[in-house]
Amino acid sequence: MNLTPDDRSTLAQSLRGTLDPTADPLDNDAALVELGWHDMVESGPDAVGVVFEVLGMTGSSSTVLDDVVAVAAGLEPGSTVGLPRWGSAERPTTIALGSARLDTQRLAGLRPVAGIDPELGFVECDASLLLFGDEDRWPAVVTAARAAIGAWLFGMARAMLEMARTHAVDRTQFGRPIGSFQAVRHKLADVHVAIEAADPALAAVGNGTLDSDLARVLAGQAAAVASMHCQQILAGVGFTEEHGFHRYMKRAMFVDGLFGTTSSICAELGRGLLRDNSVPRTVQLQAHAPR
Amino acid sequence: MDIAACRLRLTDHLDEFADEYAPTFQGAGTLTQQLEQLSKVKALLWEHGFAQWGWPERVGGNGGPAMLRAMVGEEIVARDLVVAGFFSMTETLAPTLIEFASPDVAARFVPRILSGSEMWCQGFSEPNAGSDLASLSCRAVPDEDGWVINGQKLWTSLSQFSQRCLLLARTGTPESRHRGITAFFLDMDTPGITVRPVAIMSGNAEFAEVFFDDVAVPDARRLGEVDGGWSVAMTLLPFERSTAFWHRTAFLWSRLDRIVADDPKDDRAAYLIGEAFTALHALRSRSLATLQRLDRGETLGPETSIDKVLMATAEQKVFDVARTLFPGLMETGDDADAQQWRDEFLYSRAATIYGGTGEIQRNIIARRLLDLGDER
After folding, report:
1. Is residue A167, in this structure, part of any structural domain at all?
2. pTM of the model
3. Which of A43, A72, A259, B348 counts the highest number of beta carbons within 10 A?
4. CB–CB of A283/A218 below 8 Å?
5. Which of B170, B185, B172, B31 is nearest to B122 (CA)?
6. Which residues are CB-neighbours of A253 under 8 A, at least 6 positions away?
7. Does a structural domain hold residue B375?
């Protein structure tokens, strides 16, 4: 299913009204299911991308990555699936990451992963407790998960830019808004460029593994540049727990390790080129946008 | 017109006439060789009817969308038949003439640049007007026969080889900035023009200083309105950042091909190649979206500063990666291959300078796209 730009903004609008950044992951999941999430996740990467982008922008917690994985693995949405260990894209055989769908009260042998982003509610556990689907579907799982994670990181990058931009306009030092200083402006411009670089790549996911990996790397780079520069612009204010910035920055750090990190996927892409001894022409001239 | 079908016709032709199109020299060649090759390739494309694709019929073209020109240049550049930057100069100069010259001037001269029988240059920058183009001071004063031009241009690419020049000159008061500039299209053999070639750091005398001493230009060679030269210059920019950029992406892609084909034995190779590939993908995706907007008749504006930053970033990344993975090649190599990598590496350093520096692009992004208000 391809969404028109209008469909996308209508969906994004209702997601913004639905997702609650202060809610538990499972509560946001329930709200998403109410909104038709199970149909969306089976309809392909377009609607999934919008959901993850808004999850990222609003800083809301959810376990719906499980459903993206489940559908790609040939399982039912709502299944309690397993994810690779942080930083890895390998199908786990011993220790896996599980989502907040696992009941830590009922199941022994689970280690709740507080880490840098306890709100996401991940756990570490034995892979035997989790579903992974057919082994030969794993590459498709990685592709689908990376497309969703790319959109998630992209949403976070956009939220961080908006916070820093607002601060640069509102915050006065030396008798003028700090956004009038070129050093500040150029940092914000670089964040904007990184975000805009990822945007068309994310819009093209659905055309295979390569497109998904490239979009994921560009989104990860945007989130990294945004984390670095927006933190610096928000300065002493953004360094506190009272400002919302830290939640995005920490979540971007955590999410960057799901199904491989930005840099490990980058190296994976390079290995693919070296193995095939060719650089695929990923983008071809065509008169009209793919969607 | 279907682009894929046109591409097939062109590639069949290029395969059939491969020997005729091929350069007669190894590697990058000298500047003179490069320009002879450029004229030859353009003349062949014209003779066989491909150089006309995507240009209006009233200037000798055979119509169709500008995207056809993007495709033709992509194929020519991908085969390494020409220096991309030289080939693409047509993409900025010819559309400007078509839009602003009188119909007969455009019809008379545009076919000459399309067919490779003439080179044109762009006289914009001056010693004291680089990033701050609106401060230019080369003057055009009206007299009974037209205009008299006095002043100096600098960094004027290929002007010593050019028959025509698209010139910006001050016609308002010195303080009038962008409101007091007029554009002209003049003949480089007009008395009073002196060209002093300037070598770029690779050693090639690719651009020049151009001096104007009482140079007479008829009013028929004025482009656009008196004092309307700024909009002429601003019209040129989107063309640089659409079809010409697409050509350049093909050049960068071919260089990444070469790096990969060399199969560098370096622990960092996979990561660095992945990074360069990602930067190229971002650039191509963005550039395609820009071409599609142009194709739909949209006006391109400050958002093309993002294309420009992505281009500069990708270009420097590709050559930085080459330098890391081919240790010593650019620093100590003396064969044709090494010479070409060195020249292209050095040229890539200008990617954040020409056509508006990286800093100017970020200023535009901050003010126009992020709405941060004025500086200071």
Report:
1. yes
2. 0.96
3. A259
4. no
5. B185
6. A116, A117, A227
7. no
Domain boundary among B227, B248, B274: B227
* Residue B223 confidence (pLDDT): 97
Q: Which secondary structure element, helix H or strand E, spans residue B347, and what is its range?
A: helix B336-348
Q: What is the pLDDT of residues A235-258, one digit of tens each?
A: 999 999 999 999 999 999 999 999
Tell me whether residue B126 is one of the annotated catalytic residues: no
pLDDT, average across residues A70-97: 95
User: Which structural domain, as residue segments, surrounds residue B156?
Assistant: 121-227
Examine the domain organization and report whether B159 and B208 are in the same domain.
Answer: yes
* pLDDT of the residue at A206: 84
Task: Say if A39 falls within a structural domain.
Answer: no
Interface test with A, best of B259, B272, B278, B293 (most A CBs within 10 A): B278
Residue B334 burial (10 A CB sphere; 0-12, 13-18, 19+): exposed
Q: Which of B93, B118, B143 is the last residue of a domain?
A: B118
Q: Which of B260, B275, B369 sits opposite A277 (nearest CB)?
A: B260
Residue B161 counted as domain residue: yes
B86 and B69 within one domain: yes
- Please give the residue of chain B at the shortest CA–CA distance from A216: B278
Kindly state whether B67 is in contact with chain A, defined as any CB-CB distance less than 8 angstroms.
yes
Contact B13, B50 (CB under 8 A): yes
As given in the structure block, the two tokens for residue A249 are 């920055």
Can you name the residues that pair with B120 across neighbouring β-strands?
B164
pLDDT tens readout for residues B323-376: 999 999 999 999 999 999 999 999 999 999 999 999 999 999 999 999 999 987
Place A290 in a pLDDT band, splitting at 50, 70 and 90: very low
Contact call for residues A91 and A84 (beta carbons, < 8 A): yes
Q: Which domain holds residue A148?
A: 138-276
As to burial, measured by CB atoms within 10 angstroms (0-12 exposed, 13-18 middle, 19+ buried), residue B32 is exposed
Contact A282 B284 (CB under 8 A): yes
Contacts of B376 in chain A (CB under 8 A): 176, 180
CA of B203 vs chain A CAs: smallest distance (Å): 31
**SS3 call for A33:** helix
CB–CB contact A177 B261 (8 Å):
no
Task: Write down the H helix ranges in chain A.
Answer: 5-18, 25-34, 37-42, 45-58, 65-72, 138-170, 182-203, 209-238, 245-255, 262-276
| Nearest alpha carbon to residue B222 among B154, B167, B176, B269 | B167
**Same structural domain for residues B198 and B251?**
no
Residues of chain B where predicted confidence (pLDDT) is lower than 50: none
Q: Which of B215, B260, B254, B240 is nearest to B300 (CA)?
A: B240
- Mean per-residue pLDDT, A209-238: 97
A183: contact with B, CB 8 A cutoff: no
What ipTM does the predicted assembly reach?
0.95
Residue B353: predicted pLDDT = 95
Q: What is the CA radius of gyration of chain B?
A: 21
List CB contacts of B362: < 8 A, sequence separation 6 or more: A185, A186, A189, A190, B305, B309
